[in-house]
Amino acid sequence: MDTHMAKIQVHFKVFSVGRCASCNAYNEVMIYDYGRMTYAEMEKKMDTVKHEVKNLQCKKCGHWYPPKSMVYRDSENKIPELSQEIPYGSLRTQEESAEWMAAHEARYEVFESKASEFWMAYTDFALEDWRAAVNELTRVEIESAYKEMGIKSQLRTDQHARKDALNRNLSDADKRIFWRAANEYFVREELLYIGAVGWTPVEYAKTYGRRRTQFAMLHFPVPDVHEPERTRSVAQLFRRDRGDNAFLLRKLSTLNNEVEGAKKRATEYFHANETLKAEVAVGQRKLAEAYDRIRQLEDALQASALINTGDSNDKRKIREQKSFISELLTEVKRLQKLLPEASATVDFPDTGPSEPEDTENDPPQSYASLQGKTLVIIGGDRSEQASNVNAPCRIITVDGMTMGVELDAALKQADIIVVLKWHISHAAMWTARAHAIETDTPIIYSSPINIARILDLAAKKLLPS
Ligand SMILES: [Zn+2]
Fold first, then answer.
1. Cα 82 to middle of ligand 1, angstroms
2. Beta-carbon neighbour count of residue 357 at 10 Å?
3. What's the burial of 101, exposed, middle or buried (CB within 10 Å: 0-12/13-18/19+)?
4. How far is the CA of 270 from the centre of ligand 1 (A)?
5. How many domains does the chain have?
6. Structural domain containing residue 325
7. Which of 64, 257, 446, 449 shows a CA-CA span of 20 to 30 A to 21?
8. How many A from CA of 224 to the centre of ligand 1?
9. Cα–ligand 1 centroid distance for 282 (angstroms)
10. Which of 219, 237, 255 is the last residue of a domain?
11. Are both 329 and 413 inside the same structural domain?
12. Are 110 and 231 within one domain?
């Protein structure tokens, strides 16, 4: 770490941010305050603080939804804001997360236990092509190696320092000492201090050179649970490599891209699903409101039919209400499409105004009023019974789970509609009710499912009052 940077006073606060899945309004909430401290202290503390992902509540519409990113903001304004997208596609469980953190804390021990092997391999690598290795070192690195070896020299630039080091004709043993000392900062302060979970390979390749960054990352001792992080890091550096293992490494890189792509898509799906969930919730609420309006209209129409004052004001009101119902019906259909599951639920639906119960003592009805009419029965499966009965009218049966074209076509032909109370989905029932209001079609809500009884009820309903 840059020493000037390390001493800067910062005050970081962490915010959970994102657009509402329901209304798209932007919301953010502070979830953690690091307090005022130096940048170095803050970096240390970041290792130990874990932010739990909690849902945000929209200030505009009240909907709860998962945030998109965590934002780190310095209220001293010395460090630019840092935003980190929450990877829903690869979130770890709490246990995995704990193991992950423990491994990060144990990284020094893991490194020390294999440090001598690592340095041996790393210096072997440097000796293989000493010129290429030295040509990636900076003046500062070479100076620190000279200091360790007691060599005194005035170095002006990176170029000058490299030339100076190459011209010294060091023995292999000295080269090993030199290489290790020159790389102490890179290995300890970058790779080890940051840990595999935070490696930034592209940055390292720019600062320290691509060759040694590749080698060090491939061979650095990391805790087992962080191996996937090594793979991720290494893959970023081998996209266009041409070495001996180029084929395998390119393959690794491709596979890694696929994994990263899948994670990204999973995160996108996660948010899309949240938006859909919110839409469905809104749809359900609107649908309930629409049903309520239909119920009110039914009551109003029934009341006005009973009074039938001929008041032109009443007639105008009814006309207005009817034109409203057709808008409502369109909305209901749109919402029902949005809610495939809700529309398929069958329970004992509220079937609206009930017919006066007919008793066994009622005189048998003549079917005369049904002559030439079309009777539409919705719910259950009455088709077989309907085709066997000797009725003066045409009977169309629609099963109560069917929505869409078939139901609409049947309703259009109906002179009278019979809704079978216990064999129909909410959606089909409400569609029938709205249609009845809109078109002035008589409608009966019937519990009997015997076709003869249904015909009785229908004939009675169609009798002139
Ligand atoms: Zn909202």
1. 25
2. 7
3. middle
4. 17
5. 4
6. 265-344
7. 257
8. 43
9. 11
10. 237
11. no
12. yes
Confidence class of residue 345 from pLDDT cuts 50, 70 and 90? Answer: very low
Span from the CA of 21 to the centroid of ligand 1 (angstroms): 7
Most confident of 72-76, 311-315, 399-403: 72-76
115, 173: one domain: yes
Residue type at position 266: A
Q: Are residues 113 and 223 located together in one domain of the fold?
A: yes
Cα 335 to ligand 1 centroid, rounded to whole Å: 19
Flag whether 256 is in a domain: no
Q: Distance, CA 62 to ligand 1 centroid (Å)?
A: 6
Shared-domain flag, residues 333 and 398: no
Residue 342 has pLDDT above 50, yes or no: no
For residue 279, how far is its CA from the centre of ligand 1 (angstroms)?
Answer: 11
Q: How far apart are CA 317 and CA 311, in angstroms?
A: 10
Span from the CA of 284 to the centroid of ligand 1 (angstroms): 16
Lowest mean per-residue pLDDT among 8-17, 126-135, 184-193, 375-384: 375-384
Q: How far apart are CA 15 and CA 31, in angstroms?
A: 5
Distance of CA 115 to the CA centre of its chain: 43
Helix (H) or strand (E) holding 31: strand 26-38
pLDDT digits (tens, 9 = 90+) for 40-64: 898 888 877 878 888 999 999 999 9
Ligand 1 centre and the CA of 272: distance in Å? 15
3-state SS class at 208: helix
